[in-house]
Each structure stands twice: as C-alpha cells, then as structure tokens.
Design goal:
By secondary structure, this protein is an alpha/beta fold. Helices cover 40% and strands 16% of the residues. The protein has 13 helices and 14 strands. The longest helix is centred in the middle third of the chain and has 22 residues.
Length: 311
Amino acid sequence: MKKRITSFILLVFMSIVILTGCGGKQEEADKNKKGKESFPITITDAYGTEVTIDKKPERIVSLSPSTVEVLYKLNLQDNIVGVTEYCDYPKEAGSKTKVGDFNGTNIEKIVELNPDIVFGNPGMSKEDFDKLTGLGIKVIVAEARTFDKIPDTFKMVGMATDTLDEAEKLADDLTNKVNQIKDKVKDTEKVKAYYVISFGEAGNWTAGKNTFISDMINMAGGENIADDVDGWKEYSLEKIIEKDPDVMLISAMVANDNKDILNSQEGYKETAAVKNKNTVIIDDYLTQRPGPRIVDGLEAIAKALHPEVFK
C-alpha cells in the first residue's frame, strides 16, 4: 500500500508539472483573429516564446493530455499523429502512436512522425524543447497555470490550428458552465474541505493554494483548510484535526473505490467529515487536467460541498 501511494504521489507531482502551464496573451488572439485564421500567425506560448506558424498544421503531436482533449473537441482527431501514454481520453486517443511516457519524451519518434506542430507541456525538459525546436519543429506549450486562464488556452490551440471559432465556442461553453455552478453556490455558507492525496505511512499529502484543486474548492463554495501552504505539500495531521474539515475529498487513485477508507485512520477519524460520513471520492483526471472536462470536476466538488443546491 505504501509503495502504491508513494508511486502515486510521484505521478501527481509529475502530472501537476505536465498538466499545468500558463495561457497565451488575449491580445494576440484579437490581433490574429480575422474570421478564420490567416497564416502565418505568431503566438506567445507558456514559455514566453514567440512561435510563428506558417501554415495550417496537418500533422499534430501532443504531449499534453488536456490539449489532446481540446483537439478532439475541435474535431482535429484525424490530424493527431502522436500522443503520450497519459493521453487516455477520449478512449480513441489511446490508439495513437506513443511518443512519451514516465521516462520522458521520445524525440526520435516525434521526428519520425514529421509533425507540423507539437503541443508540449510545462513538464518537458528544456533539453527536449531545444532539441525539437533546433530541428525546426514548431513547439507550443498551451496549458493554464490557473483556472481562470483555461479558456484562453483553448483559444491558443484554436489559433494555432485554424479552428479559432470552434475554440472560442468551447471556451464560452466552459465559462458559462462555471458561472452556472458558481451562481448555485454563491449564497451558501462556506464549507471547510480537505483534499486527500495520501495518508498514513505515505504522509498526509494535499493540495494547498495555487493548485487547481484549491481554486475549485474555493469556487465551489468551500474553504480549503490547506490554503496556508503553497502547492502540493505534506500537511500536518495535527492541523487537520485542529481545522476539523466538514468534508473530505479523496483522490480516486488513493480511495480505490472505498469512500470509508479514512474511517480507521488516526486523526482523520476524529474529524467532523469522517464522523458524519462526509467523505467523497473525486476523479483526479477531472480536477488535474486543465481541459474541457475540468468543469465536471468543479461540479463534482460543488456537489460534495453543497449537495442541497444540486437536488
């Protein structure tokens, strides 16, 4: 169990780096938007690098699971020629050629696929980035570091692939759904919540401020009790007991389909959340990937915190 959870923690930290980035500048979307895209266009990506795309990309490699989801929503699935082992949604993405895994990026395979553009992730090494760009391959890192920048990253992908109209609709749909959820919980009393990544021998790891999880807890009418730490950190069991959360949100990869997994855990069993059976399993992929489905993660958290307004 300890080995499994420890491995999960490593994957979480890797995924946080891989699955979070920063969006492009909105003024560039306005500058480059001329009905349908007009090439060449220049985009400033998450690395702050200006990337000029000369023509509409026909062959696309994505090293980011969230960008793969965006590409499918933009009906560009037939243009995707390479993905990583983590790009598992939609299910069909799993059949694409793999160019990366836990061990890193397969530069040779990417070159072999002859892509017009590679959508990278903030977790890719500078060495890999330089190798690809040094070979004349266009690389754009298009992911959001904060929840509010996610719609802008959809538009960045749309700009780069000549699907800006569709990307803007996707961004608007997400924004509208988020606003609907926020409207439902706006008059509710804040609920204290804690997100469980691991516990026991593996340590009490959680999501502090400046994480998607914490952003969503706060947007969903909650108060993340771990907002006194920054990022993904090990949290004091004494603090968990002292702050006494009303709801425990448990990572699905840790819960293993058992929402009562904390019932016998020292410290946790003393909290109001566990005593009152307010423990909810949360799908990690809905809350850690800044793609179209993240609004489903927000809704799942909102329902866990305020089930009364979602009846």
